[in-house]
Amino acid sequence: MIIAVDFDGVLVRSAFPKIGEPDHEMVDLVRLLIQKPGVEVILWTSRVDQPLEDAIAWCERMGLVFDATNDNAPSNKRKYGKLYPNGTRKVYADYYLDDHNMGYNRSTAIDIISSILREEDVK
Predict the structure, then answer these.
(1) Residue 92 in contact with residue 76, Cβ under 8 Å?
(2) What is the rounded distance in angstroms from the CA atom of residue 15 to the CA atom of residue 48?
(3) pLDDT per residue rounded down to tens, the chain (123 residues)
(4) Other residues' Cβ atoms within 10 Å of the Cβ of residue 104
């Protein structure tokens, strides 16, 4: 299972280009997702250059080390690497946790994460 998580508006309150106040509950849940076998988590953000570097450093300080950043998960690269050796422009995920998704709701995102964390076998 692949989960793409936005930075601004999901892990932190939006304050771009600064880093906003953390959403501690979401950070804790995403940290658990990262540790869950069978789950790959992508940091999926519009940040680039120094603001992206700042966000990655912030995430690492919070114990969030992602499988990929603005790129496909390792499993997808293995699956499609021969067909697309330079990768694809579209980042695939089973779930996109992004405050700019149509209908995004923080409570629903927490419910989705909690449901994934309760699953015994994640595929």
Answers:
(1) yes
(2) 15
(3) 999 999 999 999 999 999 999 999 999 999 999 999 999 999 999 999 999 999 999 999 999 999 999 999 999 888 888 888 777 778 999 999 999 988 888 999 999 999 999 998 776
(4) 15
pTM: 0.91
* 3-state DSSP assignment of residue 96: strand
Query: Six-digit token pair at 115?
Result: 């449901």
Cα Rg, the chain, nearest whole Å: 14
Please answer whether residues 95 and 74 qualify as being in contact, where contact means their C-beta atoms are separated by less than 8 angstroms.
no
Question: Is residue 116 a contact partner of residue 1, using CB atoms and an 8 Å limit?
Answer: yes
